[in-house]
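Support request, priority: normal
Reporter: lab tech (M.K.)
Component: structure prediction queue

Hi team, I submitted a job for GntR family transcriptional regulator from Kushneria indalinina DSM 14324 yesterday, and the status page still shows it as pending. I've pasted the exact input below so you can check whether something in the sequence is tripping the parser. The sequence length should be 250 residues. Please let me know if I need to resubmit or if it's stuck on your end.
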Amino acid sequence: MTSTTFSGEIPLEARTLAERVFQQLQDAIVRGELPAGSKITEPGLAQTYGISRGPLREAMRRLEAHRLIEREPHVGARVVKLSMRELLELFDMREALESMAARLAARHMTVEEVQALRDVLIAHEEQGDLDQAEAYYQREGDLDFHYLIVRGSHNRMLMTTLCDDLYYLVRLYRTQYSARGGRPQRAFIEHHRIVDAIASGDEELAEQLMRRHVIAARQTVAERYAMSLDEDRELPKGSRKALSGRTPST
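Reply from support: The job had stalled in the queue. We restarted it manually and it finished. Here are the results:
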């Protein structure tokens, strides 16, 4: 039995498959399994994931819309790789907008929403990588501390900017360069303090703590990103192989 659609529409099965492929690819990019700057091709990815080109193209369009991949003339698609200036500009936006979101969350968050924040931190505390101070990986959406605070601001403009337009790009650099080394436990403690300020309705303190939290993350990210750029420049050109369809590790 075949699906019927109006002209120009994507069949439901294809949309569902495209969503699954989008989730797989964006997770691989965020975790660094598809490295920043690496070239990706539709044939390679189609072979890796065993899907047809239609759903893959839809998934890649979504990745491009979320700024995780970019297309260059005569080159093709690559995983996004920000310059240091672009990275710092991204964190400038985080500092301004997320601190505002924390202030508004202290004003508007319901008791149930604050409890959801605390529940997320309890779930994070049980992660083995955080317990061993190796990393602090947060899954997306309702399992992401920062995402919930932005939602708790009840400000639609902030939600559109931080939970949609910039979300995956921010999450990429936050995951790969901020949540490792000695930073995980400190970040976790800072999260608890931010929740306490929000729960008490202290708007000024919530804003201040979030600002300090993002500034600390920016410093860590900038230092580690600079190191990665230096290491990349030192690599022989022959070792920089394009990634056309590598199977992400699990």
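DSSP finds eleven helices and three strands in the chain. The CA atoms of residues 84 and 226 lie 7 Å apart. Let us know if anything else looks off. Ticket resolved.
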